[in-house]
Design a protein that fits this description.
The complex is a heterodimer of chains A (about 220) and B (about 190). Chain A is mainly alpha-helical and about 220 residues long. Chain A has nine helices and three strands. Chain A is globular. Chain B is α+β, with helices and mostly antiparallel strands and about 190 residues long. Chain B folds into two domains: about 60 residues, Helix Hairpins (Orthogonal Bundle); about 100 residues, Iron/manganese superoxide dismutase, C-terminal domain (minor pseudopilin epsh fold, 3-Layer(bab) Sandwich), CATH 3.55.40.20. Helices cover about 45% and strands about 10% of the residues of chain B. In chain B, helix 1 packs antiparallel against helix 3 and helix 5 packs antiparallel against helix 7. The chains are: A mainly alpha (about 220), B alpha+beta (about 190). Chains A and B meet through helix 2 of A and helix 1 of B.
């Protein structure tokens, strides 16, 4: 009986709380753009802290047991720690999935057509995205989103907010996100955020963005 | 008015081991300089062109002019109150112990506020119009002059202020920074 309770508790803990996803590549795999020390601290310290703080913030609240996206869509109902750490967990989880040491360098198919239709070319899209990322003052993220009407849009949000949250100035489902917190680039690029942004495109896997695009349009 | 970058009153390696020479090179030579340069590009031909930094901070709408003006001011204020670690012979005034019970309790409250600023920003010790001391956190370029409060000192908690030396360990940066404060400067502001 005691063992059963223990096992049940363990099961509850594993199903009710959020955990740090493993990276699908080694910390030094993206060295062409991001150094191993930055990757390791970013994943094991910053992202882990968001996960730990999120679990602490939701424990014993109505958010416990809900999916992260459910929480973010109604994030105004919760204390600000849920917003900051829930956003931090979601944003970083997406970011890691989009990076690859063998990154496809350009979109294909429906995503390529949609980008060309909206911005004219991939280069013009990148220029607009780079501007959103470079001009975000302070900590935040730049996004490419699938908007509620199925179109594409670029925007940026402060700190760990994202377009799934209501009232952040842009809405939609992010399919591409770039972290422009200084912790994402300071060890290698220091004050040169534009150099970090340029380096990001070398490890952005457009195949992964296409997968997100197709999921978002389902 | 052409805004100038104020020179540091100490060498760039003078704040070691609290802050490295490399951190000072970037923080003063690149970040602070960039805010000065940006502001000088933004204000010509605007109503802010001939205003003091303080006037711009109070009057400018939230946006690039405010951000850069406040960041010029905030960094000048931050760097002015630092000195070689352990070299300050002036003691903090007893105002902290009076209000918080002890100087250590004040430090703890200040560090907590500074650690709690989410994202880029500043922790400030300010004086209210009634003469009370108050600890506040501000995001990004936030500056207490805008709320009619008198700044006494500030800790920069943008990651660029500490990342080369402390990475994600902001609390360690905060606890060490106290060793590099110049209380003769800070007491004179009270």
């Amino acid at each position: 009986m005691l063992l059963q309770i223990l096992l049940l508790n363990l099961l509850n803990m594993t199903t009710m709380s959020f955990s740090l996803p493993n990276l699908p590549y080694a910390y030094d795999a993206l060295e062409v753009s991001f150094d191993a020390q930055t990757m390791e601290i970013h994943h094991t310290k910053h992202h882990q802290a968001y996960v730990t703080n999120l679990n602490n913030a939701i424990a014993g609240t109505p958010a416990e047991g809900k999916s992260l996206e459910e929480i973010l869509k109604t994030v105004d109902q919760y204390p600000v720690a849920v917003r900051n750490n829930g956003g931090g967990h979601w944003n970083h989880s997406l970011f890691w999935e989009l990076l690859s040491p063998n990154a496809s360098q350009a979109p294909e198919g429906a995503l390529k057509s949609a980008i060309d239709a909206k911005w004219g070319s991939l280069d013009a899209f990148k220029e607009a995205f780079n501007k959103a990322a470079a001009t975000r003052f302070g900590s935040g993220w730049a996004w490419l989103c699938v908007t509620p009407d199925g179109g594409l849009d670029i925007c940026s949000t402060a700190n760990q907010d994202n377009p799934l949250m209501p009232g952040v100035g842009c809405s939609g489902r992010p399919i591409l996100g770039l972290d422009v917190w200084e912790h994402a680039y300071y060890l290698r690029y220091q004050n040169k955020r534009p150099d970090y942004i340029a380096a990001f495109w070398r490890v952005l896997d457009w195949k992964a963005v296409e997968t997100k695009y197709n999921e978002a349009r389902k | 008015m052409n805004i100038q970058l104020p020179a540091l009153k100490y060498a760039k390696d003078a704040l070691q081991p609290v802050l490295s020479e490399k951190t000072l090179e970037f923080h003063h030579g690149k970040h602070h300089q960039a805010y000065v340069d940006n502001l000088n590009k933004l204000i010509p031909g605007t109503e802010f062109e001939h205003m003091s930094l303080e006037e711009i901070i109070v009057k400018a709408p939230l946006g690039p002019i405010f951000n850069n003006a406040a960041q010029v001011w905030n960094h000048t204020f931050y760097f002015e109150a630092l000195t070689a670690p352990g070299s300050c012979t002036t003691k903090p005034c007893d105002c902290y112990a009076k209000q918080w019970g002890s100087f250590e309790a004040f430090q703890e409250a200040f560090n907590k506020a500074a650690a709690g600023v989410f994202g880029s920003g500043w922790a400030w010790l300010v004086k209210t119009p009634e003469g009370a001391l108050q600890i506040i956190g501000e995001s990004n370029a936030g500056n207490p002059l805008r709320q009619g409060l008198k700044p006494i000192f500030c800790f920069d908690v943008w990651e660029h202020a500490y990342y080369l030396d402390y990475q994600n360990r902001r609390p360690e940066y905060l606890s060490k920074l106290w060793d590099a404060l110049d209380w003769s400067v800070i007491n004179a502001r009270c």
